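REQUEST ID: PR-0412
SUBMITTED BY: lab tech R.K.
PRIORITY: routine
TASK: structure prediction, single protein chain
INPUT:
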Amino acid sequence: MNVTKTSTRQVVCATLVFASIAASSPSHAYRLIQNLGTGRVTGGSQVTCTDPSGFAHWSSANVNWRHNISGVGGNPGVAAALYNAMNAWTFVTGANQSASYVGNTTAGFSTDGINSISWGSNSQCGSFNGCLALTALVLQSGQVIVESDVVFSTDWTWTTNGSNYDVRSVATHEFGHTLGIHHSDVPGATMYQGYTNQWSSLETDDKSALQCSQNRYPPTLTCIPDGGIDDTLYNTSCCSGLMVNGSTYCVNPADYNNGWASCYHICGSQPTANNCIAAGGIDDTLYSTSCCSGGNVPYSTRCLNPADYNNGWASCVQTCQ
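STATUS: complete
OUTPUT:
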């Protein structure tokens, strides 16, 4: 699944030939990715959620992601944009997806057991000229996804301010593909085929795709790792038993301290005996705690509430070196 740019308009394509979608545009026009093969794939047929042969899906709701920062230059906002794109899918009500940004990696667009986001040349997109980003799935029998990778083309200039080409917008679309969601025929949906820099927030059609997928294939959801997103109502819990102080964010602000229905927080790390956070652990950006090393991993700062980034840092964390 890749996003492409042409000289006339932005289109979203896939790297394999897909079954056609009906010309009409119903209110719910999402499709899921069906690929009956095993191993690494970058495409498949577009099917409905009720297709008897099923579609690609995760068996676990917990998916850990790592970021290969090589090739993105000196823009620290890129990591935050990727994190916020993951959270868009984590915050879907009626689904229990939990994507965790767990740090950096040297891994790239290859089958290695690591779910990675990397930056590479246009050649990864095959014959599609103007490819912006490409997603690969690694499938086991039964169309169970066991790994996914996303590569952004370094042939284009990437931004984090909403102008072309916006990292968060394209990443939100690509993370939909990593969840087994194909393209939608609903204009304005994040999974619509035409590129837009307004992809960063999910529409009803996008949310319905994940809800239906998880209703058919309910994933298991274990404890949330350090740095992951936990729901404040404790349908799940942090593996560490700790949340980051002050990190609670409610999609509906009225829920704060009033039912907590749409509220989440970030799972923290247990301090060492010296009351600091060890390498690889999660430290809050406001320094209620501190990294034992005195430094954080470059590009690792992210905020549960995007508005806090560079503006108070209330819900923000970083990974310790």
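NOTES: The two ends are 34 Å apart (CA to CA).
REVIEWED BY: pending
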